[in-house]
Amino acid sequence: MAMKIRLARGGSKKRPHYAIVASDSRMPRDGRFIEKLGTYNPLLPKDSEERIKMNLERVQYWLGQGAQPTDRVARFLEAAGVKEKAERKNLKKGEPGKAAKERAEKRAAREAAANAPAEEAASE
User: Fold this and answer.
1) CATH number of the structural domain 3-80
2) Which of 15, 20, 49, 79 has its Cβ near the most Cβ atoms within 10 Å?
3) For residues 115 and 83, what is the distance between their CA atoms, to the nearest angstrom?
4) DSSP reduced 3-state for 35
5) Is 7:72 a contact under the CB 8 Å cutoff?
6) pLDDT, tens digit, for every residue of 25-61?
């Protein structure tokens, strides 16, 4: 059984509140879970101690059992010092979109066409 340590959303519309849970990865996000490991309230200030609460002993137990934390939970565990910091790369984020690539190609073609007569005049 593939285990995940992830967030389960609660709260009302535009007022999220999350439970940090150990769950079977096949279960829905807010569905059945095995154990509640803590809470996360994103509406509180970042320096508040009430923002993230975790039972670190149980988190360590589930990590030892092979549970994989999601990206957000992994960041919480790195901040708590439970897990070593992983290097993340988002190679697609810095890459320009399709329209921007087309504009760059048109600009390069225009500049090449404008520079071509200037280069011919310079070579004569």
Assistant:
1) 3.30.1320.10
2) 20
3) 55
4) strand
5) yes
6) 898 888 889 999 999 999 999 899 899 999 999 999 9
d(CA 101, CA 104) in angstroms, rounded, equals: 5
Give the Cα separation of 19 and 78 in Å (integer).
18
Please report, for the chain, the start and end positions of each structural domain, with discontinuous segments joined by +: 3-80, 92-124
For residue 123 the two structure tokens come to 């070579």
Closest by alpha carbon to 21, among 73, 80, 64? 73
Is-contact 38 53, C-beta < 8 A?
yes
CA angle, 61 as apex, 75 and 32 as ends, to 5°? 80
